[in-house]
Design brief:
Nucleoside Triphosphate Pyrophosphohydrolase, 8 strands, about 15% helix, mainly beta, about 140 residues
């Protein structure tokens, strides 16, 4: 079984613009890089993928995410150096800015909402630090 992570693209409207919640990794791998909040799929706790996403949301945001939708699934042998094969299942949710309080947690710090940089998505690369700017 691949090392499987649940990632959350938590979106909100900030000053009339769409923003995404990112944190800075405080440990390896990818120390100091921006990352979506997430957690490892727990087959002992999670009845299905939606339940796993809601568990992760509870840990990081302290609330259940309404209108949670699957955004994408990515995986490869080189995705995470901690495992020979890694898979990330990414969900998205649009949440009012005043409805949650992002929490620092295991391996992520400095949580902030960042706004997409115009035109950055056309590059085709998924590099959060380059796709978003501080508000």
């Amino acid at each position: 079984m691949p090392f499987t992570r649940i990632e959350l693209a938590v979106l909100s409207i900030v000053e009339g613009n769409l923003a995404v919640l990112l944190g800075k990794r405080e440990e390896t791998p990818h120390k100091g890089k921006s990352a979506l909040p997430g957690g490892v799929l727990r087959i002992d706790l999670d009845g299905d993928l939606g339940a796993a996403a809601q568990r992760v949301a509870g840990q990081w945001l302290g609330l259940a995410l309404p209108f949670l939708r699957l955004l994408t699934v990515v995986g490869s042998k080189s995705r995470d150096p901690r495992a020979p094969w890694a898979l990330a299942i990414v969900y998205r949710a649009l949440v009012p800015i005043d409805a949650f309080d992002p929490r620092a947690g295991k391996r992520l710090e400095q949580r902030e909402l960042l706004q997409p940089v115009p035109g950055a998505m056309r590059t085709g690369a998924f590099r959060p630090a380059q796709l978003y700017r501080r508000r």
